[in-house]
Design brief:
Strand 9, helix 3 and strand 10 form a beta-alpha-beta unit. The protein is globular and about 60 Å long. The protein is built from eleven helices and 13 strands. The chain is an alpha/beta fold. Helix 1 packs antiparallel against helix 5 and helix 8 runs parallel beside helix 9. The longest helix is centred in the last third of the chain and has 33 residues. It is 39% helix and 17% strand. The chain folds into two domains: 249 residues, no CATH class; 115 residues, no CATH class.
Length: 391
């Protein structure tokens, strides 16, 4: 894979950072150029180096087992960190991801420069929690900017959804002393596996602001007790740092239940919480997907669901019976919700959650059994076509 020298353009009120991309061999159809766009007012924050593009494209290089070739100066610290980052991913999923090797770079050491802290922001529980805990951090780590990315969880085609959500978040964060930075990027077109690649996309967003941001916080999606192979993790996010920008994984001490419980009375979260990615809407959650149901259940168990304006009400606990509870992170979430429901006298919610967890356990067991017996079922398929082929 070859990444061409980055370019910077200012047009129609937007500053665009871009770089051409060329694959060495056959691969998925990708755009010719990867780009990040910011409002022109944030031009002074924008980076000039190639680091954001290398980080964003590293998942594709890993999947295709291609070296990354550049003809530019590159952060020595990030080179070492990126090597280790993909060694860890390779150790998690060796059949799918390969180590990433950088070729042709002139390694440099950048002096630390003054700047501000920023954080990734999506409007979900984790990103709100990073803003909620602002007061607990030293002044140099308190976020001045929150980066809201169009093209990550909200598709680029949904322009109106993004703008409506951004307008609401901008007002709420301004009241907290934080400035919303709208960012648009086509990074997702270069990341075939978003579960394992979204961490580098977030890291690249932070590095793209290296002109004025010296710390970039990535809100945790899991707690230390429920970690699994995942694109954003306290084990690997910090490896995407340069001498100019320290990337920080934030909030992993707390489970998702802990975060909701601590913020349940915070008005910005009550008005603007958005967790639904299956059917993106500006300020409304579908209430039917698994993530919505899990979040609603916890809010219900804490007795505050009716106060969260972006969720519909749950008439009966039957709505939660189809919830999905599979990963350690989800199981801890459910177990804590059961305890909260029992404590508040909502035994119906507790039983609905237990039944949903058992249903998930059975469904997962059946799925695994079908996978294990697939070779046998193919071999002894009694259909006429099979007997004809073996005749």
């Amino acid at each position: 894979m070859r990444i061409l020298p980055p370019e910077r353009r200012i047009k129609d009120g937007l500053v665009t950072l871009s770089a051409g991309v060329r694959l060495d061999g056959a691969g998925p159809k990708i755009p010719d150029e990867i780009w990040f766009k910011f409002p022109e007012q944030f031009e002074h924050l924008c980076a000039r180096g190639i680091e954001p593009f290398v980080v964003a494209l590293s998942p594709l290089a890993s999947l295709l087992n291609e070296e990354i070739e550049i003809d530019s100066a590159f952060s020595e610290r990030l080179k070492l960190g990126l090597d280790e980052y993909w060694k860890i991913i390779n150790s998690w999923l060796p059949q799918k991801f390969h180590q990433v090797h950088l070729r042709g770079a002139e390694l440099t050491t950048d002096a630390h420069v003054p700047g501000y802290a920023a954080a990734a922001f999506s409007g979900g529980i984790d990103s709100f929690f990073t803003q909620f805990t602002e007061r607990d951090r030293p002044p140099g780590y308190r976020t001045k900017f929150a980066v809201f990315a169009h093209g990550f969880d909200i598709p680029l085609a949904l322009e109106d959804v993004f703008e409506r959500a951004a307008a609401e978040y901008e007002r709420a964060l301004r009241a907290c002393g934080v400035e919303l930075v709208r960012m648009k990027s086509n990074v997702r077109a270069f990341v075939p596996d978003w579960n394992l690649g979204h961490g580098t996309a977030l890291g690249a967003a932070g590095l793209a602001l290296a002109g004025g941001v010296n710390r970039f916080l990535i809100p945790s999606s899991m707690s230390y007790t429920t970690l699994k192979p995942w694109g954003s993790s306290p084990m690997i996010d910090g490896l995407l740092s340069t001498d100019r920008v320290q990337v920080i994984h934030d909030g992993a001490y707390y489970s998702r239940f802990d975060k909701i419980s601590m913020m349940k009375d915070w008005e910005p979260l009550r008005k603007l919480c958005r967790v639904c990615y299956e059917k993106p809407d500006a300020m409304h959650n579908c209430g039917r997907c698994h993530k919505c149901r899990r979040t609603m259940l916890v809010l219900d168990s804490l007795g505050v669901l009716k106060d969260f304006k972006t969720f519909s009400s749950a008439p009966t606990p039957f709505q939660y019976l189809n919830g999905h509870w599979e990963t350690p992170h989800e199981l801890l979430f459910g177990t804590q919700a059961i305890a909260a429901a029992e404590k508040s006298g909502r035994h119906d919610l507790a039983w609905a959650t237990r039944i949903a967890m058992q249903r998930t356990k059975i469904a997962v067991a059946i799925k695994r059994a079908r996978k294990l017996t697939r070779p046998l079922r193919r071999r002894y398929d009694p259909s006429p076509a099979t007997f004809t082929a073996n005749a």
